[in-house]
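I'm stuck. Protein, please.
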Amino acid sequence: LTVMGEARMDPTLSPPDSTAQQDSLFSMTDVFLISLITGLLTYWFFFRKKKEEVPDLPKMQTVVAPQRDSSFIEKMKKTGRNIVVFYGSQTGTAEEFANRLSKDAHRYGLRGMAADPEEYDLSDLSRLSEIDKSLAVFCMATYGEGDPTDNAQDFYDWLQEADTDLSGLRFAVFGLGNKTYEHFNAMGKYVDKRLEELGAQRIFELGLGDDDGNLEEDFITWREQFWPAVCEHFGVEATGEESSIRQYELVVHTDVNMNKVYTGEMGRLKSYENQKPPFDAKNPFLAKVTENRKLNEGGERHLMHLELDISNSKIRYESGDHVAVYPANDSSLVNQIGEILGTDLDTVMSLNNLDEESNKKHPFPCPTSYRTALTYYLDITNPPRTNVLYELAQYATDTGEQERLRKMASSAAEGKALYLSWVVEARRNILAILQDMPSLRPPIDHLCELLPRLQARYYSIASSSKVHPNSIHICAVMVEYKTKTGRLNKGVATNWLKSKVPDQNGSSSLVPVYVRKSQFRLPFKPSTPVIMIGPGTGVAPFIGFIQERAWLKQQGKEVGETVLYYGCRHEREDYVYREELTRFQKEGVLTQLNVAFSRDQAEKVYVQHLLKKNKENIWKLINEGMAHIYVCGDARNMARDVQNTFYEIVSEFGNMSQAQAVDYVKKLMTKGRYSLDVWS
């Protein structure tokens, strides 16, 4: 361009030079034009792209804008529902009850939906009155020592802090608990009381289910009185008999990419092949079993110690925490179900929810095979509940068997008694029922829809992360017993764990696990004395506690008295961890080791007898040493007897009445100085 400008300004050029320059000028003009066009095209291209991006911005904003997905009110309005049944569930039972209640609603011209409180904003309860004939039902299980279940924790926290006016809300609560526990049905009672305090209207009395008795019967009894109360309140009537309505439809996949098929994963597809932290209930870690040894020297029982490698998992645990294990059902039971129902268990299928608005698209991860579902996802060993029997009855071709199933599923006293004796007390699982009712041959897909999910099993961790940061230890006893029908029933998890022998390639010794935090904790000050009571496998968390106290001592910390009360049947048969405990005692970490051998003499001796024997020392540790007490093991008998013994000791040495002693021990619990890790 500079050259061109100069040429135009020079009048002295001769004609030949001028022609040459003109040729040059044309070529330079071409360059200029090409450059100009290129520049314009480039500018237009980028400008056009920006112009196209501008309309996209609002779209992007609408995606990230807050949605009303968390509003169960909007969902109920959209789908025409007027009853919502929330469930606080740890093992799936409360969820199952919630589903049954929501399905009941159609019999009364109402429409229900079961809902996980973790997925919704519960502050919307104040808006439920916007829906005609609306009702909120809460099936709330209590976990541990009066705690909410994991999925109800946020709801519990909200209830505690809420000052919302719920005067337009109508509600009912059914609690799931166990009377052997100190805080029986605490969550159900709290939700019922708190909703009333916030102004909500209770339309039916609180139901208290007891798993130590017959939880199913408690639920049926409550339910058969609950619906008439609902009818009376809303002025509606039952439209007909209970009918069988399928919740899922079967889709069989004949041509499917096997990489898209679930093979036992709990959440993400291929999560067992490509492990990614954090690990939890929906994403368990595959831990390799590095040790599996029998702990007892004799006797009929099999007590075992397992060590699980958690290296590179980023899993952290504390002494007293629980490890959850996802087991697998016995392949022989699975095969027998397949044979009886004449099914190819390797058929790949999906069960898809017929309610397209439901958050729960499948009853278990799909697509998968029937074999995988029956092995990893479904509970085939527990006696089925009455709703399962009712739904299955239609497939019995023998009228006698059909009537028997319907009777057991009814609310009549005779039916309840038959269900209790023939199913519950005889411990008949689904396979036993199919075997004992030859005409009952349901479609396997409907059976898979009805069976509850196979749940994780929790074990008290028998190690300290201070000593074993990359390993979790389990102490378990293999469950095996003869039923009234002569069948040999085996515990799902313990028999499966027994087979997990460490090997070279590691494939057959992998166990899906995650850690659940516990309140069962050593005192903050190592100098605080501890009294631990744990007979049988109840000693598990105390092995971790003692390991930690030994480690603290090695660090130069002042460690208080560490007292253990342990019990087993026979000294020569089932005294577990004898060598470890003896060593800890010799090293001075375990200051007292008191062992009760219940059956080595004519009169049975249990841990509570040894506590009474050392009552003066016990009182001194509690009263003067401010000791922390820990009880682990059987809730039904041992924990109760031990607690009564503490009442006696406190009453005698504290010069208190029985009522004052009970109050004293309860206050120890409130202060975290009396902790329980018990099961029934």
